[in-house]
């Protein structure tokens, strides 16, 4: 059977959680006048589309229009581009990420990025981090929930590669919302994080957590032996 690995982007393959959150908050405020609660755990769906819809619906008293979402997305990407020009180091790949992707492909794995971000910002961050453009990106342009994005990614990877089914399908992510999605879809899961973030992933049910991918042999072994989360996570939002 062909194996599939689904990678989150921010905090998993790229060390961009800080700059991503900073620019998202600024874009929402400067473009649409909406001040967001920076505690991402308060939002029902931790994706760019999900947070935008929920926060703007509360702010306007109605769902946001497609034009308003386009304005927000455009401003967000422009801010990311400006930060990249100022300090490219804020868009670094996670240690060992490029080597891991290369090795997995050599070993016959099919790979994709399934991110809660929008596709334009995800492409920018992937390019800035020097990660291969041969890995397809599935984003919140396709669905506002993490589960929906993963399901679409799996289906399109099967269709695009002519694979009737994958076994196993492994999900990798750095947030408790990634544990939530893996648990909902009964997917084996590998968390990525250190310190308090790693603790939160384990508390949410992740059985395996890597600090990064610098130790390639350890990362490969952890991915190969991954199992589903041990229980339903208590937190379903986006960490600060």
Task: Name some characteristics of this structure.
single chain; about 240 residues; alpha/beta; Rossmann fold; 2 domains; six-stranded parallel beta sheet; 9 helices; about 50% helix; about 10% strand; globular
Please provide a written account of the structure.
This protein has 240 residues and is of the alpha/beta class. The chain has 2 domains: 2-16 and 92-224, Rossmann fold; 18-88. It has 9 helices and 6 strands. It has helices spanning 17-32, 48-60, 66-86, 97-106, 119-129, 146-161, 176-185, 195-204, 216-224, and strands at residues 2-7, 110-114, 136-138, 166-173, 189-192, 209-210. It has a 6-stranded parallel beta sheet, with helices on both faces. The longest helix has 21 residues, at 66-86. It is globular, with a radius of gyration of 17 Å. Mean pLDDT is 94; it is low at 232-240.
């Amino acid at each position: 059977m062909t194996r599939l690995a689904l990678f989150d982007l921010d905090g998993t393959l790229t060390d961009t959680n800080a700059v991503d959150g900073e620019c998202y908050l600024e874009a929402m405020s400067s473009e649409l006048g909406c001040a967001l609660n920076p505690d991402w755990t308060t939002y029902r769906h931790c994706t760019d589309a999900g947070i935008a819809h929920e926060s703007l619906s509360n702010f306007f008293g109605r769902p946001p229009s497609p034009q308003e979402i386009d304005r927000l997305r455009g401003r967000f990407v422009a801010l990311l581009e400006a930060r990249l020009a100022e300090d490219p180091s804020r868009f670094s790949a996670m240690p060992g990420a490029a080597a891991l992707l290369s090795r997995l492909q050599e070993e016959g794995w099919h790979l994709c990025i399934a991110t809660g971000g929008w596709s334009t910002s995800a492409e920018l961050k992937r390019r800035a981090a020097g990660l291969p453009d041969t890995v397809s990106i599935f984003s919140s342009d396709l669905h506002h929930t993490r589960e929906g994005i993963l399901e679409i990614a799996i289906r399109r990877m099967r269709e695009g590669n002519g694979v009737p089914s994958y076994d196993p399908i492994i999900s990798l992510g750095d947030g408790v919302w990634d544990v939530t999605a893996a648990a909902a879809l009964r997917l084996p899961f590998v968390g990525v994080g250190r310190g308090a973030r790693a603790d939160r992933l384990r508390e949410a049910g992740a059985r395996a957590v890597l600090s990064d991918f610098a130790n390639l042999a350890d990362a490969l072994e952890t991915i190969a032996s991954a199992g589903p989360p041990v229980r339903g996570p208590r937190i379903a939002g986006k960490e600060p």
